[in-house]
Protein: Protein SirB1 N-terminal domain-containing protein
Organism: Sorangium cellulosum
Amino acid sequence: MSLTLFAHIAGRPEDELDLAEAALLIDDAAYPGLDIPHYLGVLDRLGGEARRAVDRPLRAAEATPGSGPIEQLLRWFYGDLGFHGNSGDYYDPKNSYLHEVLDRRTGIPITLAVVLLEVCWRAGLEAQGVSFPGHFLVRTPVRGGVLLIDPFEGRLLGRDDLRALHTRATGATRDPEPRLLVPAQKRQILVRLLNNLRSIYSSRSDASRLRSVLERMQVLAPTDELRKELDQLGGERPWPSAGRDVN
């Protein structure tokens, strides 16, 4: 039933798909009985607080040329609330579960990005995820272009920063191609989140949790490779479908 519900939620059109709800349904597979409405309520509360943080008048020390709404939100999110990247235990699977990130206020780039996106949307700020190689990013439009955010470190990225991330992930010492910075669809974000869990549970030879992750990947973006791996693990068949391919 949990897998069927996930397929139903994840199969909604992009503008109707609730990213947080779908991510929490991934959590529910590993944490049966998870109180999903509670965590959606936590995001609602954070969104309300974010709106107030963005709307409040700046103190003189904060009033710099770069003190726009997104900068104010980042100071509040990473400074006041204390969200941060878990560099000490990066591969802890808890870092890849949205409710754990909300409880512990630490995670990896993609889960921190999901929280940041959900908070921005609730605060009335436009933002999108970016499935950048090796390091998920967040982007927000500004006059004349976009700002890119590193959700792991909670800072805006300049051209040199972006090139360094690109070089670290690909070995290419050049600016990333524009296609690497396009907004990610919500279902693409879910696939990437699941891919992180796939890597973790595969390395730990945790067949039960790996099977659950692969089943959800097969729902979102079915491939022959996934089907064969699931057959080897004894995965459920046939798998429900989310109804749309992820490119």
